[in-house]
Amino acid sequence: MKTVGIIINTAKPHAGSVLGSLAEILKKEGVEFVAEDSAATILKAKSKVAQASTFATGVDLLVAMGGDGTLLRAARLVGNSGVPILGINIGGLGFLTGVGEDLMEEALRSVLQGKYRIEERMVLEAELPDGTALTALNDIVVGMGSSRRIVDMVAYVGEEYVASFSGDGLIVSTPTGSTAYSLAAGGPIVYPTFDSIIITPICPHALGLRPMVLSPQVTFAVQIESGDASIVADGQEVREIASKDKVSIHRAGHRLKLLRPLTASFYKILREKLKWGGWRE
């Protein structure tokens, strides 16, 4: 790897010192690196400043330092370029940013030596009524708008009617996002490298409405029957949608590449981060 891009959540504790350590490792390994404005300011003359478009075209690897929100922002920066992302957790939960700052040096040296695996993750795309589109690594949420009133919705798979219901909204998630908002709303845990579309209602006014898992080959659509609503991609991009608007959501045409240490285990992360079982430990 010749050039590494760096983005960081500078609001995290010790962000400056961890960023400095990363820069020193890359310098010792003879790897050129570029950073976004906030990171470059901390590093001063040690780094070139990169424009957002650089991370999709001018780097071989993007290192995202922060929490899961920072990694989701990195996913938006690389888009469909195929640039892999390595997440370094300097935040709280850090489910996606699986490498802790205490293991950063070891993990980074392993990556530079080619000792890693690439996990390709499914991405969702939502087509909006105005002809624009949103993409998401975790989830796309259709829910209450600015009025904060419940929304009446009709759901379809392809052209087939599925259900009508009122509620706060619904979460359409990828397997990667199944351990995020969808899980908190009662959705299932799905292994992150699977391909599927997970539908999880949010506070529906119906006792029988439960989450379901769809084939990744279908298109899921939701139409707003009454009330104002919003659509949110990965908690970062928000659009308002109106009554009678219909949003179609399907598997995107590209996948996101996440770099993982060879020893990384999804089940271990479940135990340590979400306290899933683990009583033997």
UniProtKB/TrEMBL annotation:
<feature type="binding site">
    <location>
        <position position="168"/>
    </location>
    <ligand>
        <name>NAD(+)</name>
    </ligand>
</feature>
<keyword id="KW-0418">Kinase</keyword>
<keyword id="KW-0963">Cytoplasm</keyword>
<protein>
    <recommendedName>
        <fullName>NAD kinase</fullName>
        <ecNumber>2.7.1.23</ecNumber>
    </recommendedName>
</protein>
<keyword id="KW-0520">NAD</keyword>
<feature type="binding site">
    <location>
        <begin position="68"/>
        <end position="69"/>
    </location>
    <ligand>
        <name>NAD(+)</name>
    </ligand>
</feature>
<dbReference type="GO" id="GO:0051287">
    <property type="term" value="F:NAD binding"/>
</dbReference>
<dbReference type="InterPro" id="IPR002504">
    <property type="entry name" value="NADK"/>
</dbReference>
<feature type="binding site">
    <location>
        <begin position="138"/>
        <end position="139"/>
    </location>
    <ligand>
        <name>NAD(+)</name>
    </ligand>
</feature>
<dbReference type="GO" id="GO:0005524">
    <property type="term" value="F:ATP binding"/>
</dbReference>
<dbReference type="InterPro" id="IPR016064">
    <property type="entry name" value="NAD/diacylglycerol_kinase_sf"/>
</dbReference>
<dbReference type="GO" id="GO:0003951">
    <property type="term" value="F:NAD+ kinase activity"/>
</dbReference>
<dbReference type="GO" id="GO:0005737">
    <property type="term" value="C:cytoplasm"/>
</dbReference>
<comment type="function">
    <text>Involved in the regulation of the intracellular balance of NAD and NADP, and is a key enzyme in the biosynthesis of NADP. Catalyzes specifically the phosphorylation on 2'-hydroxyl of the adenosine moiety of NAD to yield NADP.</text>
</comment>
<keyword id="KW-0067">ATP-binding</keyword>
<dbReference type="InterPro" id="IPR017438">
    <property type="entry name" value="ATP-NAD_kinase_N"/>
</dbReference>
<comment type="similarity">
    <text>Belongs to the NAD kinase family.</text>
</comment>
<dbReference type="GO" id="GO:0006741">
    <property type="term" value="P:NADP+ biosynthetic process"/>
</dbReference>
<dbReference type="Pfam" id="PF20143">
    <property type="entry name" value="NAD_kinase_C"/>
</dbReference>
<keyword id="KW-0547">Nucleotide-binding</keyword>
<dbReference type="InterPro" id="IPR017437">
    <property type="entry name" value="ATP-NAD_kinase_PpnK-typ_C"/>
</dbReference>
<feature type="binding site">
    <location>
        <position position="149"/>
    </location>
    <ligand>
        <name>NAD(+)</name>
    </ligand>
</feature>
<dbReference type="GO" id="GO:0046872">
    <property type="term" value="F:metal ion binding"/>
</dbReference>
<dbReference type="GO" id="GO:0019674">
    <property type="term" value="P:NAD+ metabolic process"/>
</dbReference>
<dbReference type="Pfam" id="PF01513">
    <property type="entry name" value="NAD_kinase"/>
</dbReference>
<keyword id="KW-0521">NADP</keyword>
<feature type="active site" description="Proton acceptor">
    <location>
        <position position="68"/>
    </location>
</feature>
<keyword id="KW-0808">Transferase</keyword>
<feature type="binding site">
    <location>
        <position position="73"/>
    </location>
    <ligand>
        <name>NAD(+)</name>
    </ligand>
</feature>
<feature type="binding site">
    <location>
        <position position="236"/>
    </location>
    <ligand>
        <name>NAD(+)</name>
    </ligand>
</feature>
